[in-house]
Amino acid sequence: MTLTSFGPANRIKRSAETHPLTWRLRDDGEAVWLDEYQAKNGYAAARKAFADMAQDDIVQTVKDAGLKGRGGAGFPTGVKWGLMPKDESINIRYLLCNADEMEPNTWKDRMLMEQLPHLLIEGMLISARALKTYRGYIFLRGEYTTAAKHLNRAVEEAKAAGLLGKNILGSGFDFELFVHTGAGRYICGEETALINSLEGRRANPRSKPPFPAAVGVWGKPTCVNNVETLCNVPAIIADGVDWYKSLAREGSEDMGTKLMGFSGKVKNPGLWELPFGVTGRELFEDYAGGMRDGYKLKCWQPGGAGTGFLLPEHLDAQMYAGGIAKVGTRMGTGLAMAVDDSVNMVSLLRNMEQFFARESCGFCTPCRDGLPWSVKLLMAIENGQGQPGDIETLLGLVGFLGPGKTFCAHAPGAVEPLGSAIKYFRPEFEAGIAPVSAAVPPLARPIVVGA
């Protein structure tokens, strides 16, 4: 996936001053390898961090910059780093990169890993220095075979150049980095499920506390950060806090830039690095080019399948966590999906809930049983065999599987789009309710999740 542009975007030149994540990208979409990366000021931030900054100063700089997690949760990165133990006697610590990008409609991390693998390695190197971690793992979605190939090559290049391994840059600091390909489970995006999988265990989330910063992989202090999050670190160290904060639009409470995109039947589906605080309308009209001829925007999701649906009138919301929260959902991954007027919402939700039900780890009852139940009801409604009360049951499941009701955030994310779809498009659900005389008793409608 290459970055594309449309309309006003063609007049915006990517530069180090405005596009810290993407200015090094090649126009042909090929990977930027070590020599080219260093020619484009690559690893300069790492050299600065190693030569001129104390480890705690790196943590404080990232904290002051306001960098937040880019995987969807948006937790402040510097705060997370600050949770790692200060005890110098703990000499085994780990840094994990969460590259298990399985959120439907999201491919931003893939682009960074395939085209700018050294940016991620530099971000991890600086982060490892700050956190005093001697070993790191990139936990990569197994289907990302090109990313795996490119990352492994980049790791070997960095080793040969003395940027990984023993006594990095003559500092006496050692850091080994490994690429670990996962077996392919959505739940591995949850950091403790990722840790279990890395250890060779079943990918179930762990009880927290203890948090990974205290007891993580193999029982040692561990920090888990997303790919895009780590890729922001070099620019913050190189150019400073004030510059980084200045990138965001006025009114945004989130700092810096964000990889955002639009898919669906838009004229120019793509991925762009934009300042936090741009409006959904700018993203949809100026960059994605609006809907293709013959299609009309029905609704949209702002950041992956686990975010709620919004209507066209919500496009004026600013794209940052608080701005999207004002219209009733979450920023998520920042990659939006346009739903056109030919799509039946019941069928779309049945497909989504089927995915989420399949990807449940099965550990807690609300998620394990509630999501297949929603699939069963949606299949009945989709086939015109819903019965009175099914919609209310679905809304009840939205409440029962909401935040704080399940072991992790999988189920709350799964039912958020369901609740919003019923809220905005209830007549489409009501159209699938059969007359009372033709209704099929609930027990006669088997749960069919794997169909």
From TrEMBL:
<dbReference type="InterPro" id="IPR011538">
    <property type="entry name" value="Nuo51_FMN-bd"/>
</dbReference>
<keyword id="KW-0874">Quinone</keyword>
<keyword id="KW-0288">FMN</keyword>
<dbReference type="GO" id="GO:0016491">
    <property type="term" value="F:oxidoreductase activity"/>
</dbReference>
<dbReference type="InterPro" id="IPR001949">
    <property type="entry name" value="NADH-UbQ_OxRdtase_51kDa_CS"/>
</dbReference>
<keyword id="KW-1278">Translocase</keyword>
<keyword id="KW-0479">Metal-binding</keyword>
<comment type="similarity">
    <text>Belongs to the complex I 51 kDa subunit family.</text>
</comment>
<protein>
    <recommendedName>
        <fullName>NADH-quinone oxidoreductase subunit F</fullName>
        <ecNumber>7.1.1.-</ecNumber>
    </recommendedName>
</protein>
<feature type="domain" description="NADH-ubiquinone oxidoreductase 51kDa subunit iron-sulphur binding">
    <location>
        <begin position="346"/>
        <end position="391"/>
    </location>
</feature>
<keyword id="KW-0408">Iron</keyword>
<dbReference type="GO" id="GO:0051539">
    <property type="term" value="F:4 iron, 4 sulfur cluster binding"/>
</dbReference>
<dbReference type="GO" id="GO:0051287">
    <property type="term" value="F:NAD binding"/>
</dbReference>
<dbReference type="GO" id="GO:0048038">
    <property type="term" value="F:quinone binding"/>
</dbReference>
<dbReference type="GO" id="GO:0010181">
    <property type="term" value="F:FMN binding"/>
</dbReference>
<keyword id="KW-0520">NAD</keyword>
<comment type="function">
    <text>NDH-1 shuttles electrons from NADH, via FMN and iron-sulfur (Fe-S) centers, to quinones in the respiratory chain.</text>
</comment>
<keyword id="KW-0285">Flavoprotein</keyword>
<dbReference type="Pfam" id="PF10589">
    <property type="entry name" value="NADH_4Fe-4S"/>
</dbReference>
<dbReference type="InterPro" id="IPR019575">
    <property type="entry name" value="Nuop51_4Fe4S-bd"/>
</dbReference>
<dbReference type="GO" id="GO:0008137">
    <property type="term" value="F:NADH dehydrogenase (ubiquinone) activity"/>
</dbReference>
<keyword id="KW-0411">Iron-sulfur</keyword>
<dbReference type="Pfam" id="PF01512">
    <property type="entry name" value="Complex1_51K"/>
</dbReference>
<dbReference type="InterPro" id="IPR037207">
    <property type="entry name" value="Nuop51_4Fe4S-bd_sf"/>
</dbReference>
<dbReference type="InterPro" id="IPR011537">
    <property type="entry name" value="NADH-UbQ_OxRdtase_suF"/>
</dbReference>
<keyword id="KW-0560">Oxidoreductase</keyword>
<dbReference type="InterPro" id="IPR037225">
    <property type="entry name" value="Nuo51_FMN-bd_sf"/>
</dbReference>
<dbReference type="GO" id="GO:0046872">
    <property type="term" value="F:metal ion binding"/>
</dbReference>
<comment type="subunit">
    <text>Composed of 13 different subunits. Subunits NuoCD, E, F, and G constitute the peripheral sector of the complex.</text>
</comment>
<keyword id="KW-0004">4Fe-4S</keyword>
